[in-house]
Design brief:
It is a single chain. By secondary structure, the protein is an alpha/beta fold. It has 2 domains: 155 residues, HAD superfamily/HAD-like (Rossmann fold), CATH 3.40.50; 58 residues. The strands form 3 sheets. It has a 6-stranded parallel sheet.
Amino acid sequence: MTVSLHPERSFGAFLFDMDGTILSSIAATERVWSKWASRYDLDLATFLPTIHGVRASETIARQNLPGVDPQSEAELVLRDELEDVEGIVPIDGAARFLAALPTERWAVVTSAPRELARRRLGAAGLPMPPLMVSGEDVKFGKPAPDCFLLAAAQLGQKPEDCLVFEDAVAGIAAAEAAGMAVAVVTATHSHSHDTPHPKLSGYDHLSIDAESGWLRIITHSIQSGA
């Protein structure tokens, strides 16, 4: 028997985070950030979990390193990230799922700079989105809702009619603050988030029903929220 990801809900648009949601860049990301952290003798076990889902400059600013300019350091990190795309792969089923969506009904909403997002999408073999909102497009990054609200506005959709696919705590908080429904992607996480939102480990068992002019997800396997 099939069930809807969000029972009795149809949506005007789907908004996808990128890293950890439609592709996995963990190996490359942690290589680059480990190299950066070693320059400042940061404890990797403590530091690496903080890098996901937020802008690089904000990650660096939180370290409160004397004499370090977060924006300048973020540019150095970006240079290394653009060079290192080894091991970046799509989340299972993501390419097929994205290709099935009406082009005017979805967007990628990422904390990454636009240049890096395009580089990683290409490395993963995923389609370029019809609309992308990057960390450069808003004053306040996730967990502020600005990026998701901007994407909804550019797609001509009300926030309450959007479904956000996210993997990171900051992104989930941003979607909630925007008043949007959320689906949590767990593919790259060894520990599940404590969240009331539906969870999915990939897109292999998902299909789209768009016959009514609205988007509805049908799935054959889904974990219920915690």
